Amino acid sequence: MNSEKERSSLLNRAGKTLLRHITPQIYAQRSIREWPAWLEKVHEVSVPRAVIPQPEVTSSGGANINIVLRLLDQTRSLPGAIADCGVFRGASLVAIGIYLRQNGIEKTIYGFDSFAGFDESINFDMGLSGVHEKEKVLGGFSNTSIELVLAKVRAFKLNKIRLVPGYFKDAFPKVPADVQFCFAHLDVNLYTSYKECMEFCYPRLVKGGIILLDEYNDPPWPGCKEALDEFLADKPEKLQAAVSENYQKFYMVKQ
Predict the structure, then answer these.
(1) Is residue 24 included in any domain, yes or no?
(2) Is residue 65 part of a domain?
(3) By the 8 A CB rule, do 183 and 210 touch?
(4) What is the pLDDT of residue 18?
(5) I want to staple 188 with a disulfide (CB 3.0 to 4.6 A). Which of 2, 12, 173, 193 is the partner?
(6) Residue 7: pLDDT above 80?
(7) Backbone φ, ψ for residue 181 (5° rounding)
(8) Cα–chain-centroid distance for residue 47?
(9) Sign of dihedral through CA atoms 91, 94, 95, 96?
(10) What is the rounded distance in angstroms from the CA atom of residue 167 to the CA atom of residue 63?
(11) Which range of residues forms the domain containing residue 114?
């Protein structure tokens, strides 16, 4: 029995490896919105058709690529680069890169992540109320690497993506002072991370630019709401809700 399971596992891995090699070429010219859902599992890249609707409207759950792309479209005519903070394994980052290339949108995408999981700043969030989440520990979301993400970037030949590794306090100063953003996707979970991302992205955001927040009102991650409510308290912008497949995410538009 074990031998049969091992053979099956080997065949599955071999098949996936082959598909990873050939499908980027096959689907390069086909809109990512039309990609079959199974490609999400093959490449670990967010595919619009793979989004499974939730039974009711909720702010729980991961990033919804349909919301990301819809808001990205709203900023396509604006100057400025794209920021993806909280790259993890590159699912949203690579999907954004593919979408921009397919639509002739020549914008640089900066991807920020420690690629080492949560540091000690998680201790503050563990002291907040919030439902249990297995990754809510020191080193949470460390199951990634810059090499893993770069392999996906190379597979899809995305030459407009710039990865900036390191914790945000160390990574952000590496970005040239004249870089502005028209769109920023923040999927960073923690109070301190959201605070640092807003302090970095907000001043660089062009008028009409959008910052999309993944965990605002998400029960396991109350630090996001706390950080954003504090940051926006003296700002003119108000958060707006975007809903797709019953995923509710919040964003702001720079005035």
Answers:
(1) no
(2) yes
(3) yes
(4) 87
(5) 193
(6) no
(7) -125, 145
(8) 13
(9) positive
(10) 21
(11) 31-253
Torsion of CA 117, 144, 34, 73, to 10 degrees: 40
Contact yes or no for 183/242 (Cβ under 8 A): no
CA–CA dist 145, 87 (Å, integer): 10
What amino acid is encoded at 116 in this protein? A
| Neighbouring residues of 134: CB distance < 8 A, sequence distance ≥ 6 | 140
Q: What pTM was computed for the model?
A: 0.93
How many domains would you assign to the chain?
1
Sequence length of the chain is 255
Residue 5 counted as domain residue: no
Q: What is the pLDDT of residues 101-126, one digit of tens each?
A: 999 999 999 999 999 999 999 999 99
Nearest CA among 212, 178, 179, 177 for reference residue 198: 212
Do the domain assignments include residue 225?
A: yes
Instruction: For residues 36-62, give the mean pLDDT.
Output: 96
**The tokens of 124 are what?**
């503050």
12-41 pLDDT per residue, tens? 666 778 898 899 989 988 999 999 999 999
132: Cβ contacts below 8 Å, ≥ 6 apart:
220
Nearest alpha carbon to residue 254 among 243, 242, 241, 239? 239
> What are 174-177's contacts with CB under 8 Å, separation 24+?
175/110
Cα separation, 62 vs 51, in Å, equals: 10
DSSP letter for 185, please: E
